[in-house]
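Input/output pair, single chain:
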Amino acid sequence: MEQQKMDRISELTHIARERELTAEEQAERQRLRQEYINEFRSNMKQILDNTTVQRPDGTITSLRGIKQ
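Output:
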């Protein structure tokens, strides 16, 4: 996520501590937060898809496709 958007989330949070956000500000903050969460999840999935685990018996297992 772009630093400018991260800064805007922080700014809106700071404003919310001082006063009630307008409907437009609340919608903007929610949209930016959702964008951040989606990007985080995508990055984490990519990391996990490229991670392998070596077991004590020497076998190597990819985490790709494993669900808990």
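The helical segments are 3-18, 23-49. The chain has a mean pLDDT of 92.
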